[in-house]
Design brief:
The structure is a single chain. The chain has 212 residues and is α/β, with parallel strands linked by helices. It is built from seven helices and ten strands. The strands form two sheets. The protein has an eight-stranded mixed β-sheet, with helices on both faces. It has a two-stranded antiparallel ribbon with strand order 6-7.
């Protein structure tokens, strides 16, 4: 599958690495695709992924991953021709959060996932991977058991597509929470995980579901 990733930070690069290793064709994008740091990373990791502009990545991808900080997400999406998003699955991994006086969600009556869907009305937005740090986004391995990953979105076929991609990068326990409004729940779970990590001094953690 051709996958375009908007963002060349830690999240974009780790997802590009995982999906590339799984056999997908990946284009990662940046405001400055010619930045030497991107090419150093590609050589160090032995990756064949291409690094391009945001618009090139969106045009390339059958699936598009939005791996951008919340503060610049809207601005970047608005620079891209809407035709390149039309009828495509768009994976949103963003979180609208601030850390003044402790971690807090920025949005009260909506969610980042819902806002991305409102911006991309002709796309099928699926929320996932926002509840963990980039360190464990691919092939999460815990001695205590298998962590859980949630998805939500309005389009059943797109969620099935994302479910398959999550399997490709090592997630074995995946739960569909429902439509895109449930991204509010996912973003709250992210916050609970961050606070738990801080209090327990255990970065790179994830939640799991205990079953009998």
């Amino acid at each position: 599958m051709n996958i375009g990733i908007l963002g060349a930070g830690n999240v974009g690069k780790i997802l590009g690495k995982g999906l590339g290793m799984a056999g997908h064709q990946v284009v990662i994008s940046s405001r400055d695709p010619l930045d030497s740091n991107h090419f150093s990373w590609r050589q160090e990791e032995g990756m064949s992924v291409r690094i391009a502009s945001f618009e090139e990545a969106a045009r390339f991808g059958e699936v598009i991953i939005v791996a951008l900080p919340w503060f610049c997400l809207k601005d970047v999406i608005e620079t891209i021709d809407p035709a390149y998003f039309k009828n495509k699955t768009v994976i949103d991994v963003s979180n609208a959060v601030h850390f003044v006086n402790g971690p807090r969600l920025l949005l009260n009556d909506t969610s980042a996932g819902e806002i991305v869907q409102e911006m991309l009305t002709d796309s099928h937005v699926v929320k996932t991977l926002n509840t963990v740090s980039d360190k464990i986004m691919i092939h999460p391995n815990f001695n205590e058991g298998s962590p859980i990953m949630f998805i939500s979105g309005n389009h059943t076929s797109s969620k099935k597509q994302v479910h398959a991609l999550l399997k490709d990068i090592g997630w074995s326990t995946i739960v569909d929470l429902g439509d895109i409004r449930q991204s509010r729940l996912q973003e709250s779970i992210m916050l609970a995980c961050v606070i738990s990590e801080i209090q327990l001094e255990s970065p790179g953690s994830a939640f799991a579901l205990l079953t009998h």
